[in-house]
Design goal:
Number of domains: 1
Radius of gyration: 17 Å
Number of helices: 9
Distance between the termini: 13 Å
Strand content: 15-25%
Shape: globular
Strand order of the largest sheet: 1-2-3-4-5-6-7-8
CATH superfamily: Glycoside hydrolase/deacetylase
Number of strands: 9
CATH topology: TIM Barrel
Largest sheet: 8 strands, mixed, barrel
């Protein structure tokens, strides 16, 4: 087993059949670097639409089985309803669970988990809340049969243990230039003992941020770090 200080995670967010072309492009460039050591954060019903049948759903299922270590739940629709929350507005309402009552969070999570586990055929043990805004989700992990929740700054297990994360991400919503701010935030936290996480979004392909993510991954590999899954981190959370 690798020491905790020498690990990092690569995670692809916003995975669903509608982003298949970008997802396949990302897998293609990640494979020579980290193989299948990729965590995929899947949206169950993007835009409220049911998970489709046929292609490209079948192609996505095959790609996920071939190119990922784990599947994470990333929201039912990913989108929040109308809100006066300034942060929600800034990130394009991509924070579905923020502001929802506990019962609605529970219902959405149950429906979302059932959907993607049936569609992909793999067990889901962790979650990345849309926009990293978890609302009541952190309180419901045990009830949902989940082992951990991934935030931007920490991984939290169902038993309440925490592991600090330093996250590089370049998609902050509608304003593409905000990606530079998120990159700086990841670099700032990396000065401590937090485990590095490189997050890629389908939007990074068109916004030309994907090369920035690949550069960061190469730097981490050159530094002797080993790519692992969030599930591995959760299982070894006591290790600094």
């Amino acid at each position: 087993m690798t020491g905790g200080s020498r690990q990092f995670v690569v995670c692809l967010h916003d995975v669903h059949p509608g982003t298949l072309p970008e997802v396949l492009s990302v897998f293609e460039v990640l494979r020579p670097l980290v193989g299948a050591a990729v965590s995929a954060a899947v949206v169950s019903k993007p835009g409220g639409l049911p998970w489709p049948t046929g292609e490209p759903a079948s192609a996505l299922r095959r790609a996920l089985h071939q190119s990922t270590d784990e599947i994470l739940w990333h929201g039912l629709t990913h989108r929040r309803g109308r809100s006066l929350d300034p942060l929600s507005w800034l990130i394009g309402r991509s924070d579905e669970l923020a502001g929802l009552p506990r019962t609605q969070v529970l219902d959405r999570a149950r429906e979302g988990l059932e959907t993607i586990q049936a569609a992909i055929g793999r067990q889901v043990r962790g979650t990345v809340p849309p926009g990293w805004r978890s609302g009541y989700l952190g309180e419901l992990l045990g009830e949902l049969g989940l082992s951990f929740l991934v935030g931007r700054c920490a991984l939290v297990t169902a038993s309440g243990q925490r592991r600090a994360l330093a996250t590089w991400s370049w998609d902050a919503g509608p304003v593409a230039a905000a990606g530079w701010m998120l990159e700086w935030a990841g670099s700032a936290r990396a000065r401590g003992t937090a485990t590095p996480v490189v997050v890629v979004h389908p939007a990074d392909v068109k916004r030309a941020f994907l090369p920035r993510a690949l550069k960061r991954i190469r730097q981490l590999l050159d530094d002797g770090r080993v790519p692992v899954s969030f599930e591995y981190l959760a299982a070894n959370v006591e290790r600094p």
